[in-house]
Specification:
Distance between the termini of chain A: 51 Å
Structural class of chain A: alpha/beta
Strand order of the largest sheet of chain A: 11-15-14-16-17-19-18
Oligomer: homodimer
Helix content of chain A: 25-40%
Number of domains of chain A: 3
């Protein structure tokens, strides 16, 4: 990893403020989108977003919208956006989606304004321990101690965030240093393009040997290995050796459809996952972590692969796609024949079911769409159907912090102008960051939000059943039901400036989805299940 | 402080689970309301909320609703509610309002489910450093290490939370210990009623001396000293000595109106606060902390009172009302004559202004209403007008974390059945926890939400002006404006099942507020400014 050293200096009469130096450095490092919900202690930075040209500032009404958008942006753009958040409590509202970003290995650059350094000791009402809040979701945390330090630490934070596999980096920017007028040039070290490490032959060869020897193998792809190259190489290996392919259960961004391999996700519930891996003698990880149970259940192992079967072909830091290609070459595996896209057997009419939604959305996806999937109700059926869809990129909730899908759709749309975004979203999880709809409306983003409306936290009903509560009592019913009252989704959408409608049948979904995909700005469709 | 020791034991065949032991202990300590947004790792606790009778479980669609409601509940009920939140990310969504609760000295008992203890080492997707997240907003954090430990630590957490001045206490409850079936009785130490410490004569007498000697004094009341007794005693002192009375700027819960003293709040902006205190030779703190500037501004001192003038009559831990009574007695101060409630000079018609809103809402408040105030636009004018209102309790945003007003209204309504609650709320801040409206609808709470709709983060416009940005550029304009699109508040309310309407004039506000106050369940009125 090398760094380009750049001398950066004040470039206008009257000098640059620390806030302006931060923004100039950020732009020089290629960060030009800022998802912001600022307050008083960020006003110099807000002013600097105008005095230094080049950053697109996008307002979120709630901080979780900003951090989730930065995650979605990073997954599609492959580089960080900035978030600008207000002190400890404002940052805290963004933690849940930074948790997801951390699990997605998304590079995110967080800037938090803090009180003036000399004011902190007085413990004013908004003072809090920001480092303690930021550390669990940041690979790097730093606090600037001068105006020049804001520029230097900006470069360091962005370098930390963008080094593979990517992480959140959080810079705390005291208000006085934002305002400080710099009197001398500042040297900063800008991060170079960070390449993923190549996997050594000593790692690849023994795996090739075991595959050649006919061991029953599973290839589990994750992270960057889920791009087109990685998947095509994995398909060669599978065709040559009979290895079974899986994608990690919650990929950050997976290319899907358009003739790519029909890559199932490893099942979510541990019994099914254990079953899927039970016969393997060799479980090869390419960019994926060792599969573990999402939750711990009495009597079910945390580690899902049979003991002693796991071999790491590539870590998330490494170039997994290249490693898979080298492995396929070692095996002399030819390109498998292209899979013809099957004729559609006709789309389902009548009352909507999750399966019908999965098939209809898959069939109607425009080429190169981005699909942000949150919630199991329609998410799993969509994945079942969508390997036959047009080429698209699927984003999932990597960390399990709810309220990720709509903000990620916002960020993805900003990262990829010209691509349609579909947010396939469960009703319960949509509520955590519902304010995303307003940012879609303000920025006129081409996002079609599909709400799977079953008026329940269905996954919790299932989990209650696992705890022997097949007939939940009144409190458990109240805590897992979203009825009484049911949401009026078209009204909520309209409240935020997004045209919304409600459908109950396959015919209506096809008609409204066609109309929504043809529209320019955001649209919402409540799918009553 | 004494503790009652109670032997608690399994009371049904088959034994009690750790989760049931937690709920039984919590009920025995007087905690019988649970604001919850649970997930998989809290399912045994959710089941226990039914198998152990006596807790009212209230669902919030977002965790900040739950924690803000627990804060509002504590302010009115004077005792903790439980929050039940899901792992680190779910808890993180509740941090902002726990920050406010901490600044309000509200007793709050947080329960966070965590992974099964034996599963943690595998770093499953939802694993995070919960202690690091919880510590900044908790006076006490503990992790149970057994099923019996859940009961014991519940008692200890509630004791910590309820010891004056009150704090948040956070119990981390691993899922396996929630499920563990207890085989032997468990002893727990239940907290006794915690009395505030009495203030010693050695503290009171020197202050009495200086007041008698004619020093120009300001009495700054805060915390529990803002109850009726404290205010009446302070009014006696003021009448006898000429001392000027102020309330802290953001009281947790202040009794107002109905003939109580006309107690101004110390001004928010530091220049005004410095001016208010400039002539004082003695600034007496009764339950209030030393006043500090809300933010640090270049050239303005952080400490607002003249150096050397501050004397502490009572800390937030102490019985400030009693101290004020003793001080008034020392001074031989008689009861001042009751202030007649002035005739209303007629309420304003025509286009709504913040001043008109303040006067109309004050005049129409029903007896013993609770008013949850968040946002400056109508908040300050309401305080100016409301000393002449009927007796009511005013709640304010103590910690500056935005999104506090609507959840606090939810909690206050649940704490005080039979009292009307008015949430006087700015549009920008309402968006952070907008999901509160749904809980109001589900629980059919008598909350009238009044939205001060000016379609801007006006306080930030003011702050930009303080940074010399009297004409904000395009990014600063975008980041401080809520137009483009404007919210449709009646639609948002309807989306959550709350009847909503919009008014533009004083006549219309009087008519709609009268109708809303007469209704049974929640209502929302958008006040277009």
């Amino acid at each position: 990893m090398t760094h380009a050293t750049t001398v950066w200096q004040a470039n206008r009469s009257g000098g640059l403020t620390g806030a302006e130096a931060l923004i100039e450095t950020s732009l020089a490092a290629g960060v030009d989108v800022c998802f912001a919900n600022p307050g008083t202690t960020e006003m110099p930075l807000v002013a600097a977003l105008d005095s230094v040209a080049g950053t697109r500032a996008v307002l979120g009404l709630f901080e979780g919208v900003c951090t989730g958008a930065a995650d979605g942006y990073a997954r599609i753009a492959g580089r960080p956006a900035m978030t600008l958040l207000h002190l400890g409590p404002g940052f805290a509202n963004g933690i849940a989606n930074l948790h997801n970003a951390r699990r997605a290995h998304s590079p995110v650059f967080n800037v938090i304004g803090d009180h003036a350094s000399w004011h902190l000791v007085h413990d004013a009402p908004l003072t809090s321990d920001i480092v303690s809040l930021a550390s669990p979701v940041s690979g790097w945390v730093g606090t600037a101690a001068s105006g020049a330090g804001l520029a230097q630490l900006t470069a360091r934070a962005i370098a930390a965030a963008t080094a593979p596999p990517g992480c959140g980096a959080t810079l705390i920017a005291p208000a006085d240093f934002q305002q400080e007028v710099l009197t001398a040039p500042v040297d900063v070290e800008l991060p170079d393009t960070r390449l993923r490490r190549e996997v050594a032959a000593e790692v690849i060869d023994p795996i090739a040997e075991r595959l050649r020897a006919g061991e029953r193998a599973v290839l589990l792809l994750g992270g960057a290995a889920l791009d087109e190259r990685g998947q095509r190489a994995a398909a060669r290996i599978a065709a040559a050796t009979g290895a079974v392919l899986y994608s990690e259960t919650f990929p950050a961004a997976a290319e899907r459809g358009g003739g790519l391999p029909d890559l199932d996700r490893l099942p979510y519930f541990p019994e099914k996952a254990v079953e899927a891996l039970a016969k393997a003698q060799l479980v090869v990880l390419a960019g994926a972590l060792e599969p573990v149970s999402y939750f711990g259940y009495e009597g079910i192992p945390s580690l899902l692969a049979p003991p002693g079967t796991v071999e790491v072909l590539s870590t998330p830091e490494e170039d997994g796609a290249l490693a898979l290609e080298v492995l396929a070459d070692r095996l002399g595996a030819p390109e498998p024949a292209a899979r013809p896209r099957p004729d559609d057997e006709g789309l389902p009419d009548g009352a909507l079911t999750p399966q019908a939604v999965g098939r209809i959305v898959s069939a109607m996806l425009p080429e190169h769409a981005i699909v942000s999937v949150e919630g199991g109700t329609c998410g799993y059926p969509f994945f079942t159907a969508s390997s036959r869809a047009a080429r698209h990129t699927a984003l999932t909730n990597t960390g399990g912090a709810i309220g990720q899908g709509l903000p990620a759709a916002v960020g993805a749309a900003i990262a990829a102008p010209g691509r349609k975004v579909v947010a396939l979203q469960s009703d319960g999880s949509a509520q955590y960051t519902i304010q995303s709809l307003w940012t879609m409306a303000r920025e006129q983003l081409p996002v079609v939000t599909l709400i799977a409306s079953n008026r329940a936290y269905n996954v919790l009903r299932t989990e209650l059943g696992r705890h022997g509560q097949s007939r939940p009592g009144p409190n458990a019913t109240a805590l897992t039901s979203l009825d009484g009252p049911a949401f009026d989704w078209p009204a909520l959408a309209r409240g935020y400036g997004v045209p919304g409608t409600r459908v109950e049948t396959g015919e209506a979904l096809r008609r409204e989805l066609g109309r929504a995909l043809a529209a320019d700005g955001p649209q919402l469709i409540e799918m009553a299940l």
